[in-house]
Amino acid sequence: MEITLNHTIVAAQDNVESAKFYERIFGFEFIKEWGHFAVVKVNSTLTLDFDTQENFSRSHYAFKVSE
User: Fold this and answer.
1) With a threshold of 0.85, does the pTM exceed it?
2) Is residue 36 part of a domain?
3) Which of these, 9, 21, 17, lies nearest to 50 by C-alpha position?
4) How many C-beta atoms surround the C-beta of residue 28 within 10 A?
5) Does residue 65 form part of some domain?
6) pLDDT digits (tens, 9 = 90+) for 23-59
7) Residue-number span of the structural domain to which 44 is assigned
8) DSSP state, 40?
9) Does the pLDDT of residue 11 top 70, yes or no?
């Protein structure tokens, strides 16, 4: 069984600005805005989802598990 970290939510005051900062500094790819998230592709299996909402889980990690 393969388990990979699929995405995690990162708190931000400005989600798009934060996503573009990570793109610029780390070379990640800013994918899109999706609802209240700004999504950054870290590698083929992991994204960082920047969120500006006041109420969200402070520790959100989503794992993808094979059959």
Assistant:
1) no
2) yes
3) 9
4) 19
5) no
6) 999 999 999 999 889 999 999 999 999 998 776 667 8
7) 3-55
8) E
9) yes
* Better-scored residue on pLDDT, 6 or 52: 6
Confidence of residue 8 (pLDDT cuts 50, 70, 90): very high
Structure token pair of residue 33: 């805005």
Helical ranges in 1-67 per DSSP H = 15-26
Q: Looking at the domain assignment, is residue 67 inside a domain?
A: no
Beta bridge partners of 40: 30, 48
CATH of the domain at 24: 3.30.720.120
Length, in residues, of the chain: 67
The answer to whether residues 39 and 16 touch, using CB atoms and an 8 Å cutoff, is: no
Q: Are strands 61-65 and 29-34 parallel, antiparallel or unpaired?
A: unpaired
3-state secondary structure of 24: helix
The reply to whether 48 falls in a domain is: yes
Domain count, the chain: 1
